[in-house]
Automatic annotation (TrEMBL):
Family annotation (PROSITE patterns): PROKAR_LIPOPROTEIN
InterPro entries: PbH1, Pectin_lyas_fold, Pectin_lyase_fold/virulence
Chain segments carrying region Disordered: 402-427
Signal peptide segment: 1-18
Keyword set includes Metal-binding: no
Keywords associated with the record: Signal
Keyword Ribonucleoprotein: no
Residue ranges with Low complexity bias: 409-427
Protein name: Right handed beta helix domain-containing protein
Native species: Vanrija pseudolonga
Length: 464
């Protein structure tokens, strides 16, 4: 008698060493390996292979790792490709301290699949500590972010994201954007990553008090980016808690040259501080509080280099512009008109009427002609600006355009490219420092370790 097929297939999961799981392994079997592997288990994927995932791989125990065998670099890393849902990897449920995602590529498959609401392409963090994401490429997320480190119940701590290459993420069309890296875990580090063509924020910091974002390269090459590094969100660390959050020594580049300008490649706000910069009056009197933004270098095309509004007890100091820069953008259809209309594009913009105890270096420009000092003006909902139709991009090493631009009525003249002083850097050290307190605000207003590999054996039993 022959046993029916549903009963005839017996899957045996056997721990062994020295073998990666091939891409013929189903999503269900890959997940079973993690579930049965226990604490410290390493799910080893084969180099140069693509794994189609109908469901995200979910870490199941502490100190587990998902990685490519031999830790290869570049395109040899295994590809986890989303073919169902929006996410390839999940490490957010409780009990996953020490989870590690290393040396893999995550293809969100936007393009073959339409954009969708849902989880980020990579979801880590949650109520966990000491997680690691390194040497990972993440691109073409279907949903809102290529890589998200979630806060859980505000108990996530000490996640490190490093040496990753992220992007492209999202599209230029209104509402089709996606972040590169989204950080909401406290006391964490985002460092030594490259984010290219994220269309929402390159690195978005959702409070994440005590965290550091340092030595990253963020660049718009073929499409517009709303913000390079954003410190604008009121939630989840209510109300905008950025205490001891530091943004240090990052390089942010807008587009260069004719090829890039054809795609509208610019960063609308290089570094955005405070909810008003992003959301206008949506959050009323709420502010971003307690962060430090220091030593960052900006080059290329922006609408605004750094913009600060609705902030308290921030230090913004010693940031600079290098090489050819331009501050360009046309008024878009979503820009506020009248008395609350945003200031035209400029290098450094501070909405002094909304700042308390904020230290700005350089200080407020004594003359409008000083391009590299802060200008006092309305910094509200600045992402409404759109790439200009005029050829106003600075010279530089552009990349051929591959994406369409957003469009809208042109009402504001663009600015011409500007070259920084002969020392190649316009730096804050040459200017005064302004500390904005409540009194000054009123005045300004008038102005694999042990590797256990899984051998998947499928036995079909017949009984005669």
């Amino acid at each position: 008698m022959r046993i029916p097929q549903s009963l005839a297939v017996l899957t045996l999961l056997t721990l062994t060493s020295g073998a990666c799981l091939p891409n013929s392994t189903s999503s269900t079997a890959l997940q079973a390996a993690l579930t049965q592997g226990g604490a410290g288990y390493v799910l080893s994927l084969c180099p140069n292979e693509v794994y189609d995932l109908s469901q995200p791989l979910a870490f199941a125990s502490p100190d587990q790792e998902i990685s490519t065998e031999g830790y290869p670099a570049g395109s040899a890393r295994a590809v986890l490709r989303v073919v169902g849902g929006t996410s390839a990897v999940s490490g957010t449920r409780a009990g996953l301290d020490g989870a590690r995602l290393r040396y893999v590529q995550v293809d969100g498959n936007r393009g073959a699949l339409p954009p969708a609401t849902g989880a980020a392409a990579i979801e880590m963090g949650g109520n966990n500590a000491n997680q690691l994401i390194e040497h990972v490429r993440s691109y073409d997320a279907r949903a809102w972010s290529c890589l998200h480190v979630a806060e859980g119940d505000l108990r996530c701590t000490n996640t490190t994201v490093q040496y990753c290459d992220v992007g492209p993420c999202g599209q230029a069309d209104f509402g089709a954007w996606a972040d590169g890296i989204s950080l909401s875990c406290r006391d964490s580090a985002v460092q030594f990553n490259t984010v290219t063509d994220a269309t929402d924020g390159g690195v978005v910091v959702f409070g994440a008090p005590g965290s550091v974002v340092r030595n990253n390269t963020i660049q718009a090459v073929t499409r517009p980016m709303l913000g390079g590094i954003n410190l604008v969100d009121v939630v989840p660390w209510v109300p905008g808690n950025y205490t001891h959050t530091q943004v240090l020594d990052n390089a942010i580049s807008g587009g260069f040259g004719d090829a890039a300008s054809a795609a509208g490649a610019l960063v609308k706000v290089g570094i955005a501080i405070g909810p008003r910069v992003w959301f206008g009056d949506k959050y009323g009197a709420n502010v971003s509080t307690g962060g430090v933004v220091r030593g960052n270098v900006l080059r290329g095309a922006f609408s605004f280099g750094i913009a600060v509004a609705s902030a308290d007890s921030f230090v913004v100091a010693d940031n600079s512009f290098a090489g050819e820069v331009a501050f360009i953008g046309d008024i878009g259809p979503n820009c506020t008109q009248g008395a609350l209309a945003p200031h035209p594009p400029t290098a450094l913009l501070a909405d002094l009427a909304t700042l308390t105890n904020v230290t700005l270096t350089p200080g407020i420009s004594p003359t409008p002609a000083d391009d590299f000092a802060f200008v006092n003006g309305t910094a509200s909902a600045l992402t409404c600006f759109i790439p200009p139709k005029a050829a106003a991009w600075p010279a530089g090493q552009g990349v051929p355009a591959v994406s369409p631009v957003d469009t809208g009525a042109s009402q504001t003249p663009t600015s011409a490219p500007r070259t920084t002083p002969s020392n190649s850097t316009a730096t804050a050290s040459a200017h005064s420092t302004a500390t904005v307190n409540s009194a000054a605000r009123a005045i300004a207003h008038s102005n694999c370790l042990t590797i256990a590999h899984l051998l998947l054996i499928t036995a079909t039993l017949f009984i005669n």
